[in-house]
Amino acid sequence: MHSFGYRANALLTFAMTILALMCAMASLSDNFNSPTPSAHVKVVNINRFQKQPKGNDEVSMQLNISADLQSLFTWNTKQVFVYVAAEYETPKNSLNQISLWDGIIPSKEHAKFWIHTSNKYRFIDQGSNLRGKEFNMTLHWHVMPKTGKMSADKIVMSGYHLPDEYR
Amino acid sequence: MGWIGETIDSIKSLQIRQVLTQAVSLGMIVTSALIIWKALMCITGSESPVVVVLSGSMEPGFKRGDILFLHMSKDPIRAGEIVVFNVDGREIPIVHRVIKVHERQDTGEVDVLTKGDNNYGDDRLLYAHGQLWLQRHHIMGRAVGFLPYVGWVTIIMTEKPIIKYILIGALGLLVITSKD
């Protein structure tokens, strides 16, 4: 009854149970955090606005992004993935989401930032609908935990316009 | 001798009734594992509810050997979500983040472009030749939960099958010789 095998088995099972319980508790403790992030995105300049030979519109722009995401960090947070996307509707598509910039925030100290950048990924429409287009900028974040449940949310900023003519 | 001697003795002293009991309990373990797996498939709606991360393309978020829990719901796919997808002609599923979404007005079909956080460019090079977008049917599920390191067990077992056989053999012996 009290052989080596039994004791090793009991110890291993107990250790695993405690570890799983601690992981679950760490993940659940994230629920007590109610974050209040803030963000602001400004289109500083339209660098290029053209129709590609294939017929799709492409825009290149300069962005000013400032955000304070410090309240997203808890002790179970490994990193926060943050990205800015343009969202708009066209006659063909009910929703178009184009990531323009993204970044990885490794710690709370880096969570309040200001960045001036051109769009990291190409802003290409499916078709030629972008002239004079009104679109929303959304700042999304994706919280990656050390263990447990991942969470995500966004701030929507509206009232952005693309120019009426190519340039 | 000690433990090994006892083990051999207990195998020698097996009775037919005892053998049957052991076989039933072994069967119970196997079937309950199967039931749990199938139940997870039903709950999550994904054909593989748990995947192991095999590459470093999502570092530092997901490292090799981490485990992801998948969920496949009717909810539309949106940019920023981490999805697991299968490309035609490739057997191994890939875990990457969605960076572009185009959803059709009439049919609701989606065109999706993905990228690994740690990769420089998007995934068009990984897709089948000439494929520009992923559609709904390529996607197996989205990642909702995360558990570090546990997946190393499976990675080691697939890369060094001998360890798998030793482990299965040892566990089988333990079940057969247990006496309660």
TrEMBL record, chain A:
Q: State the compartments where it is located.
A: Endoplasmic reticulum membrane
Where it mainly occurs, coarsely classed, is endoplasmic reticulum
Q: How does it sit in the membrane?
A: Single-pass type II membrane protein
Q: Which residues belong to the signal peptide in this entry?
A: 1-26
The domain of life is: Eukaryota
Does rRNA processing show up as a keyword for this record?
Answer: no
Q: Which GO terms describe its biological process?
A: signal peptide processing
Q: Which GO terms describe its cellular component?
A: signal peptidase complex
Tell me one Pfam family matched here: SPC22
Q: Which InterPro entries did the record assign?
A: SPC3
**Keywords attached to this entry:** Endoplasmic reticulum, Membrane, Signal, Signal-anchor, Transmembrane, Transmembrane helix
- What family does the database annotate? Belongs to the SPCS3 family.
The UniProt function text for this chain reads: Essential component of the signal peptidase complex (SPC) which catalyzes the cleavage of N-terminal signal sequences from nascent proteins as they are translocated into the lumen of the endoplasmic reticulum. Essential for the SPC catalytic activity, possibly by stabilizing and positioning the active center of the complex close to the lumenal surface.
Q: What is this protein called?
A: Signal peptidase complex subunit 3
Which organism is this protein's natural source? Juglans regia (English walnut)
TrEMBL record, chain B:
* A Pfam family recorded for this sequence: Peptidase_S24
Q: Which InterPro entries match?
A: LexA/Signal_pep-like_sf, Peptidase_S24_S26A/B/C, Peptidase_S26, Peptidase_S26B
Which top-rank group of organisms is this from? Eukaryota
> One GO BP annotation here?
signal peptide processing
Using the UniProt record, give the first listed, main subcellular location.
endoplasmic reticulum
One GO term describing the cellular component: signal peptidase complex
Q: Which family does it belong to?
A: Belongs to the peptidase S26B family.
Q: Return the protein name.
A: Signal peptidase complex catalytic subunit SEC11
The answer to whether the entry has keyword Protease is yes
